[in-house]
Design goal:
Elements: H1 3-33, H2 36-59, H3 61-65
């Protein structure tokens, strides 16, 4: 095995381990957050965040609106 092969094997192993770890963590989080009370809490948090974001963007529209232009490709 040369260095290139070793790096390729290492890259594949890291990607596989990362994927498996992400799947396990996601499964654990989903199990912990399962339930109506948590869903309502998450929905309320998202509603509040989106409302706050919209309000902030609206109040500061002069800052970002000037940067938006209709350009042809």
């Amino acid at each position: 095995m040369n260095k290139t092969d070793e790096r390729e094997v290492e890259r594949i192993v890291r990607a596989t381990v990362k994927d498996e770890l992400e799947k396990k963590v996601e499964k654990m989080v989903r199990e912990e957050l399962k339930g109506k009370a948590n869903e309502r809490l998450i929905i309320q948090i998202v509603k509040n965040a989106m409302s706050s974001l919209y309000r902030t963007l609206w109040m500061r529209r002069a800052t970002w609106l000037s940067g938006i232009e209709n350009k042809e490709n």
